[in-house]
Specification:
Layout lengths: L36 H10 L9
Length: 55
């Protein structure tokens, strides 16, 4: 949407879910003394897993 908000469509019968996260920040904007913070978060969010937690 033009205001930067996003929406989602709930499809409870689907077996797979997808989450997409976009950011207008990167390593060039890491604060001094915290270089590598963007790379760290990349690994937190992008490393795959073999299990899922469901509520």
């Amino acid at each position: 949407m033009t205001n930067g908000n996003y929406y989602y469509i709930k499809t409870p019968n689907d077996l797979i879910s997808v989450i997409s996260l976009w950011s207008s920040h990167g390593s060039s904007l890491d604060p001094k003394g915290k270089e590598g913070l963007s790379h760290y978060f990349e690994h937190l969010f992008l490393n795959s897993t073999t299990f899922a937690l469901c509520s």
